[in-house]
Queue: 4 jobs
Job 1
Amino acid sequence: MSQHRVCQISGNTFVISDEEEKYCTVHDIPLPTISPEERLRSVTAFDNAINLYHGECAFTKEKILTSIPPERHHVYSAEIFASDKWDALTFGRAYDFSRPFFEQFAELLKLVPLPSRLVIVSTLENSNYVNGVTAAKNCYLLFNGTNCEDCLFCRVLNQCKNVLDSFSTQNSELCYGCINVNQGYQLFWAENCSNCNDSYFLFNCQNLKHCYGCENLKGIRNVLLRNIKKNLKPRILVVMKLGNKNI
């Protein structure tokens, strides 16, 4: 029988399934006292994915951009961190078996400099305000991307060009406001779509062309406002209201 428990952080009720309880028992793990949402929040709080700060390289004293708040930790610029100008082994220390591992790890983490940004500088061209990126050209505020060009205000892109305000998009070009899109071209405000071109306001569609306001459709073209359900209608209304204000 599944257990219902109250999260010690949020106060919300969460469920411990029979499978989870069995796994914890077999591996001698205490049953969770925190909800899955709060556990995920705790894990991801360690990583700052989309914020950049003005800081100083602790090695060269030069002004740099860093994803780590400079008042919290010593950081090296991405160039210095990847170079042979410093030796990380100088921060090494003997392991004390009488003390908890994570306690010692936390102490070591506070001493060793961290890279200001997770980038390969040699693969970037005119793309200073990015993080978690390789092979980018003319990109701005792009986070977690690979092989992108002329992309702005995006996160998790791969093989994209001229994509703006989008998330989790790949192999796409000339797109705006897209989420979880693959192989889109001139696609605007689309979500969960693949192989769609020259279309606006799509949700969960495949192989559409010259369409506007479609949901859960495949292999059609030149269609206007077809099969609109609860996922798509609110987005169209919001964008229409914003457009009216700007006229």
Job 2
Amino acid sequence: MPIILFYLSLVSNAFTQEIATQFTSYRVKPSDTLMLIAFAHYSDHRQWKQILADNQDQLNGSHQLTEGVELKLRMPLKPLEARPTQNPYLIKTGDTLGGISIKVYGQPKHWKDIYHNNRNQIHDPNLIFAGFTLYYRDLTRLPALYQELH
């Protein structure tokens, strides 16, 4: 496996905050959005503006992506930590952390547990996006987690 592909496979499994001036290419897939690409590549949906700025020539200032278009993505400077490996939940339109808590735990009071488990992905607990994946822990582990957090 070429070194760059090995590095990209490591980066895709790590959270990142900082980006560099070296670029890699990314081919747009069906149903991609700038936010989803930013989240997948940088673990930070807010980096979509940087992707837009770096690709003005391909996108002509539009947020609309066309399948197959090659985008330039800045290389992350450093991986921070691995993504959660617990139970995945794909956020749907209209979901809230309280609503997700009801769906996965049967009651809304565990929304903070979902938030704390995903705090590297959620910057504002009142702002989550359809199409992103959150992770929730087994309810039997929650009492031990409270001990870890306090």
Job 3
Amino acid sequence: MAKKSHLKRRRLSSTAEVQVLSMSRRRCAICYGLLGDTGIKDGQIAHLDRNRNNNDIDNLCFLCLNHHNTYDAKMLQAKHLTVDEVKIYRMELYAAIKAGVLRRPSVSRRVGPARVSSRADAEIMMRLFDRRLKLYVGFLKFLSHVTEKADLELSFLYRFSRHITIRCFVFGDDIEEYLQEVKKKAIRLRAIRRMVQHEKDNERLQKLFEEESEVLSWLSDQFDEGQRRFKKYLQIDWKPGAG
């Protein structure tokens, strides 16, 4: 008969617990990072690497009950929040708390120029602008790759899909729907080019060439269309004399 293990889970020291709670002010890092929510939460201290014996302060993060359960759940079909992703949200939360920015305005999905009236607002809006700009730059790189390359790798499509998933929360639903449409067109272009390589019937081959031309033309037009759609999210209305 196998002996039972006498190894016990290491208890979180009161010093580490107080340190995490004081640094977070009981604000959930994921609520802050994804939703801009700085409300005080009922929550728990999560082990980011999911190893409950690793009580290193860098591995600890205060999360609300809902996000702690979601983070720890092993859903094989879902894309998990990664350790590094949550650490970024935690870092931003700690920086905001240190700067005295606890009442973060609900601007994460705002359309149109964002008005900035204080230094705290400016810091928040610049972080928001930076996140939005990264997705827009990624979108332009994606279009360039799709329209210039003869073959579109599945790995490149996967990276773009992941880029959308991670960053689209700082835009409205219109941008997410638009990017999904662009992705579908790119996937169709890839499929057409693969079919062309194996098609022997001249009539069907001609139809494939025509569709390829139409899809490629549509994708090329998205450089201007994308600029128009993203523009309203990349404007900041700086108020003179703001302090």
Job 4
Amino acid sequence: MLVGGSEPELAAAGPGRSGGRRAGAEAELPAGRGPGRTGGRRAGAEAELAAARPGPEAEQAVGVLNHRARDSLRICPMQLHQAAIVAEMVDVLYDMLPASGAPKTFGDAARIAGLHEVWTSNSHLSKKPRVLALVEAGLQQNSLEKLLLEVVSLSLNYRRAKARPLRRDEVERLADLAEQLGRPMPHLRDRRLIERLAPSPSAPVFPATAAPSTPGSSVVEIDDSAARTHTVALDALRNRFMELHGMADRKAAGRNLNGFLVELFTLFDLAPTEAFRVVGEEIDGAFYFHNETYLLEAKWTAEKTQAHDLYTFDAKVSRKTTYTRGLFISINGFTGEAVEAYCRGGPPRAVLIDGAHLFRVLSGGISLDQLLLRVTRHLSLRGDPYLPAADL
């Protein structure tokens, strides 16, 4: 059932999967390295980027300008919008370097940025959660700028060797996301660098409505009005979600969450129902997905969801038919102990998602039905009800 609380906070790393592995005290950042490391022979965009790498004085100046943003990120748990920005940054970085098997990898960028221990301590994870751990540690240790500059610098040669040169839109998007996190990076916007990058791919432009084609013409005109309508509705839901997130009355926000979810699930044709009661229990809602009925539980509280909430919901699901499944949405996530205990209690009958998953859907990064497909498949293959948004 919906429960209100104080201003919600969201941990992007999920329930103790990677956030708990970050090292303790802040590491001292190494001084910036100029172009001398290559003897002045490196030309083109890579040399420009190396020359722009900030030295100690520049780093101190940037630190003074951004100390308030950095302090808030270091002291407070990651807010919902910051978690979404970090998740998108990981997506942009993912294809820039390999995790292993190449002369230069993410491990080299981590070492130069003073984050080598973070990279090596997460060697048991797949590539995406390891990159997520690097970005989060960079935010905490004020070394995100060094990390991003090194990744871009090493990626220039790596991607060129793979016949997939680094593109302008990738670097510009990385700079945009860094600014949204309070880390302006003018070196990534240097005109001399941008002009030497591969051009951004041009997207095809389709007409908004279908027009009669000329007899004998090979041109096929596509009506994308339905897609445009869907995008507009999704944008409206995202804005509404952020309004709920910013409401001072958290109980009212919690009460409004059910109606919001009904609209979201309706947009993706999942046939949702409103909250209803059966004898002795309350169900927040239900929906239909891949020929199976799912019961829905949604919570938006200041604290992460505990194990007893998962046990209670699983019991509700088990009292229905053997074909009934469950979806538990906790906007502020789940404790690591809750997920582990839920798995030990028997085969889970519900999948778990949090605010980072929902924001990925609302931002157009993944459709709701694809999200459900991936988390349910993860449960079926691994027996794990929780797949972090960064691993989708």
